[in-house]
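Sample intake sheet
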Amino acid sequence: MLSRMTSILYAVMIVALIVKPIAVRAETITVPVFLDYQQLQLLMMWDKFKGPNNTAPYLLDDDGCTSITFSEPRLSAEGELLRVDAKTLTTIGVPTIGACKVISRWTGRTAVTGKPALVSDQPFSVEFRVQAARLYDQQGKLLTDSIVLQAVKEQLHLLLSDYRLDLKPETDQLKALLPYFLPHYSADLLTGMIDSLRIDHLVLWSNGLDVQLGIDVETVAKAGPEPTLSEHEMQQLEQWYQSWDAFLTFVIKEAATATGSKELRATLLEILLDARYQFKSILGEPQQSATDPVKRLFIRSWERLIPVMREISVNLPEQNLLPFLSFITAADALKALDRLGPAVGLDISTDGLRRLARLLNDDPSIDPLKYLDEIDPVLQQLFDLGMPGKITQQKKSHGFNLQLIRPVYAASPRDRLNRWVPTAADLKAYLFEIRNLLLEEADARIRGSSIAQKYAHIYRKLMLTTAWQESCWRQYIVHNRKVVPLISASGDIGMLQINEKVWRGFYSPSKLRWDITYNARAGSEILFKFMVNYALKQQEHKHGGNLSNLARATYSAYNGGPSQVSRYRKNDVPAAHKKIDSAFWEKYQQVNQGQELAVAQCFGGQASSSNTATLQINKGRKQSGSKQVTTSKDSKRIKNVEWIRGRNPQHFTIQLAAMSGELAIKEFIKQQSQAGSFAYYRKTQKGRDFYVAIYGSYANRADAEKATAHFASLKPWIRDFGSIQKIIPK
């Protein structure tokens, strides 16, 4: 039944024989071929239960009137034995003219146990020697003496006795493949290594069958550290990476296509993005060797893939299981070889990658190593990314849904921002337009989801801060008197610095360069997904901080990959990463206080405390028809100083924020969604004026403390009105 399992050996040998020549001694590597009982069960059903509705019928007479039908097999361990339980239907009949007359039917379950053992003179075959057969009625009672038991016993023995693992037939086919993986090895050496392959270990565990293959590998002396890469070698490394990235992307797509689980797809996306982020980092470390960092990245990614692919495989149709098992076994072989270290000299060629990929899909019309820069619609659809269209208004939800709902967009009339590099004269107008663009894209993302309002507030600030951190709100620069997109040395593009390698297939590189709205939209989509799928899902706001931690965690992931979501709060991270996270946090705190226009300092302009700059924003907002325009409702809920003076001095209020600009504090209050009365007052401290926002009036401190829950992220301060009335200028 397991003759098809020879493809597993194919995978093992493809990977296990990727070694270098100049051998001086032999080492034995162990390659685990582990099959859990769900996988074995699928394979048994595929091979032995070929009747209608996955049944295994056996005729007991020549007329076909008496039969036994097995169905619904369940495999498990019984001590050191494999146990197969199956539903059993026994039909006893006699032939009549042109038909059968049924005398009796019996339904129950049978159990047969067998001990795994190597087949004599067949070193690659495993059989299961039957130990016992038992029959149970529908109530689970064991039948010890029954005509039915005698009738089915022989068939039970056949069922398990035929269940075997036979890997020998495919070994000869591997010889033709070896030149693709061992181009420097002699034919004699390759033959000797193949001939050494055998089953070294065979045991049943509570969770599956463990078959361990042994291969004698000729090893070399331990190599010393490789020299620093030259510029040409770095270019070669990047070319090799393209093949590897195409391979990994192909494998991830195949796995994601095989499952409808949103959770498993999310994990696959995380593996892909982390691998791409890590290689981006490798390219920025020229002191590394040509093989070690890439090999380390390859193995790390593959190790993360294995448990996901195992989980996918147990839910696959039987005919799709073996390719996954082959791929999983190849991964285990690769890990086994890598543990020998430099003595083996693990090397992986592009042809080897291509043949490994074909274990999952051997369609000759598909090149699994084809590296394309353009958008991949399949990749977008599988992972719900990179497909902007028309915005649809979603019904507001009071709850929070971890499943990201992708908003659909319509074209935005923002052509005036394209190719705009601001001068000192138009800087204020430029900053106003960029601020509006970033917030409009953030709001569009929020409207298209069911995210809770308190998280939405964090996300809006995150959008402004990330664009500040990444580019100082710039999409373009002037180079050699020409306006060109802002692109970093590592391929980070535009205002949100979206890396073309990391996000290959999801977004158009050309549009990321030349369409500022597209760049902002792509960045908002990535940030939102990272915040929902990583920062919120991992509850970063509950790790010794407040809601602001969501912004910090999201940015750490945005900068370093999904696996870095908690980087901002760890001590054992590189100094460069600490510096990046600290710089982001400083900017976020300014944005949180309504000082996002401090980004003007990047251009040599004034910070956002400038009343003139803030006034310009308010004017522009009114002209643009933005939702942030001051309304009569907003004006009514902002009370004046006389309202503060008229409060009972013994009553309490909640202090929310202090800012250096009056219009900035008004804007801050307008952005608050909580109903009720807000007010602000001016105070002078160390010769400077500050404007302080407060909320509500409460007769007792307990009521005020309850209300602070609505403003937890602002770290509110409860004060009595008397203390405020004393410092208000007359």
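Comment: The longest strand covers residues 99-119. Residues 16-24, 220-225, 389-412, 607-634 have pLDDT under 50 and may be disordered.
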